[in-house]
Amino acid sequence: MQADRSLEAVADALQAAGLDRHFMSAADDEQWDKEIRGSMAEAIEQVGDDVGVPILVFSDDGRVAGISGPVMSPAVTGAAALALWDNVAGVAWNPHVFELKRSRTTGPSF
Predict the structure, then answer these.
(1) Which of 6, 14, 76, 109 allows an S-S link to 80, with CB 3.0 to 4.6 Å?
(2) Which segments of 1-110 does DSSP mark as H helices, in order?
């Protein structure tokens, strides 16, 4: 199944997340381009340019750590999501971990 990447689908996702569909008006507003490019450059500086998205960057007391992922399907919630967050942060802060990956055995679950 091909994901719907239309602006209407994005507006529906905003609404499903409890956000105002009005935020879609920023989708083609060029005033945000410089800020987004700068933010992406900072993230790539932490993880390298040979990764995909999502990219998470953690900072604490002047220390910075970044990691690409996790890619979840389906998304976890509640206590499982909090445990996942703690584990992902732990992996990101460990300077000896440079990659985790597994083959996809199924398609995404939306």
Answers:
(1) 76
(2) 7-16, 33-47, 78-93
